[in-house]
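Blinded run. Sample ID left blank on purpose so nobody reads anything into the name before looking at the predicted structure. Input follows.
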Amino acid sequence: MHKMLKNIPLYITSIIIITFCSCSEEIKTLPQDTLGLQYYPIEIGNFRTYQVDSTIIANQGAVRESSTSFVKEEIVNVNITETGDSTFIIRRSESATLDGGFVAKDVWTVTKTLENVIRNEENLEFMKMLFQ
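Blinded prediction complete.
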């Protein structure tokens, strides 16, 4: 029994060495077409137009105002970062009618990388998609 206790440090050292030697770092690179990048298509010239219906209730329900307007989001430019990521510039415009003249009100961005899509709306970032 005493001889066995003497060898415990040797056993522990052996286990530690075997554990560290058996570990290896493996990095797999997946083809881009398997990441799902096509699920967030974005390019210059793309636009979306939304109808916005708004109802304001004030004075404990005594005053009720309803309005309808339109918001257009158009991709107007793209910047490529040093790392190769794309940051798209979105111009948000508003109009009282669908056919009326849209007036630019705000600029937002969408950054698309091989890992994710992040949309910046009025200085707030939202992760819209994660590619894995």
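Unblinding after everyone has recorded impressions. Residues 27-130 form one domain.
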